[in-house]
Amino acid sequence: xxxxxxxxxxxxxxxxxxxxxxxxxxxxxxxxxxxxxxxxxxxxxxxxxxxxxxxxxxxxxxxxxxxxxxxxxxxxxxxxxxxxxxxxxxxxxxxxxxxxxxxxxxxxxxxxxxxxxxxxxxxxxxxxxxxxxxxxxxxxxxxxxxxxxxxxxxxxxxxxxxxxxxxxxxxxxxxxxxxxxxxxxxxxxxxxxxxxxxxxxxxxxxxxxxxxxxxxxxxxxxxxxxxxxxxxxxxxxxxxxxxxxxxxxxxxxxxxxxxxxxxxxxxxx
Length: 269
Hints:
Complement Module, domain 1
């Protein structure tokens, strides 16, 4: 699209496409989104992935830490934490049912909850199927379950790891590079390897972090007619002389190309 990109560069194109420059080609793929919360907000303008800073509950955006009541009321209070919505009903002492006053939240509070074949007392908290990542509570005869909020990670997706029995992923350090891999010819050099990429005046070395550092050799001509040897970086002034496209050895005499009465000699100094 008219913009030069360096080898290995990554950027995002419109339409949530992540692109990479590899070997002179542009490879694009759809942005992969990881949504570690139950009520994410839609992607912000110019973004690709939903956000877990805030919550979207019943079509209404809620700010982080916002406490609110759901649309059906029923004295339930909800809170938005890290993209997760947790709702609880007020704890009330056991009462009689039905209530003569619907406005009284504590007029009818069953003492126990029946959930998946087990009975829980009012206010009891327990895990769902022995999963510590989900917490349930018995309120007013009903069971409310919510996910454990997880911190927002600042590492890329391929460096995230979820261990056995863990609720939230953690960042892992990337493995140390074993060498330098060149996409243009598919050759991998070990750390410390020195090579020439094709220009005899340029030498490259594979650094410990997997990067390649190159440096050119500056040649200084010490004679007016140096000899250039194929495959050698700097001209050679000790092997002879170059004159009118021809190579003459040291102390060799030859006629001048400008005047046949003149004789020339190659002197290496």
